[in-house]
């Protein structure tokens, strides 16, 4: 199997009247009309009433009773950035309201995802009488039903198991269950992250005076971080949460220290979170224990925060090295697969369980087929899957359920576990399911270009116009522009090992633009002076020694159509 061929789709949408040409094309290409575009640019929709969520009233009563009666409360999170930020948010807000709160994050390696009976027993032994879950718990039916006597349980979550036979899913029997995806919910927006649902609970608690006024505003930055980190669509209420929250993230000492370690600074944009802060928070749960990231989010001590941030940064570097090593091995195996393979399903006992999802994501992007990567631990093999448009990964896992011990997730991403000896049968069943869902689907990587421009159009003014589309991410991608038929003026490599590439481009002598590609060391040899190419890119500002200029962050390139095709195997893909 070779990397999927690349194809550009250049939008032909007519610009929205009243907007500049390029921005008008970008907004029209996202399906917005004039009125919708105006609302979109003004900051998103108004936030919905949190009590519109099914189960919210019961959740507020249950938590309120626990706070009033002085019962110890545990906030039970998850080990990813979404769960960690949600756990920190409710812990800090409830403590501000005078509650006795014990935060708990399960260990990815020893416990795995979800509620665990042993953990609830341990919490009960520590005096906990009320447990509030964040980012988990909906499908923990047996654990919830058999929880310690006298323990109140509030589940806040955004995961929903699918019943293979189409019947309504079973839900954990809790005192209150808040999940916008549950069948009875009529909230109006079901795309909230786990941190988003937890933040809506915080809003409701504040409205009832259970936590002090202003707590929801103080911690909306954590909700924004969790939303971006969990790759939730940045539309609807999520856009509002993220847009309001980005400016408040650095108010927390721990996140301010982490931003310094990640070399990002205000004003933050969504990509700073996606590629800077979130990977470092996730690294704790992937490499060791997510408690380290939780401690960072809970701490107000600058010295402690600095030390924790540096430790997370080191773990992230270790995570990057582990992913690179596993990915190199995985690529060798994928190269042996037939081109028509409906899904990549590979496993190895030596691949750390905490990184298999990242490897699966890279394989899915490069080969444009669903990818399932498994750590074949002889005790219990654990894996992650990432899927493409048209293949619902949880439904595929439903088909392979006879081989699985547990599984769950979203349409595009899921986790699962199985006995190592069942891996061969699992591979057959999951491949069969993926083939059935998307028969004849072309295997290609599509770059959706919002607008063509010329080199002279790549200005700081255009950058400012495109800033209005922020926050960008899943569901609202960074605007992608293209210039056709530009000429390479010069090409340089830079970085400690010459791993980055900078190329100057011009078209017809009317203007020049500097383009840059990070971590693409083999690209320079394909860009000699005088070569004519088409490029697609995201426009960004570059600050250096007090001067701000515009540059193009390359996403893909191809020989100009007027030039004889050449072999350029180096794929740019998404920014590093």
List keywords for this structure.
576 residues, alpha/beta, OB fold (Dihydrolipoamide Acetyltransferase, E2P), inorganic pyrophosphatase (n-terminal core), Diaminopimelate Epimerase, Chain A, domain 1, 3 domains, 18 helices, globular, disordered C terminus
Structure explained in plain terms:
Residues 562-576 have low confidence and may be disordered. With 576 residues, the chain is α/β, with parallel strands linked by helices. The two termini are 24 Å apart. A five-stranded parallel β-sheet has the order 3-2-4-5-6, with helices on both faces. It has a five-stranded mixed β-sheet with strand order 7-8-9-11-10, sandwiched between helices. Helix 12 packs across helix 13. It has 18 helices and 18 strands. It folds into three domains: 7-13 and 446-559, OB fold (Dihydrolipoamide Acetyltransferase, E2P) (Beta Barrel); 50-315, inorganic pyrophosphatase (n-terminal core), CATH 3.90.1640; 337-437, Diaminopimelate Epimerase, Chain A, domain 1, CATH 3.10.310. The chain is 36% helix and 20% strand.
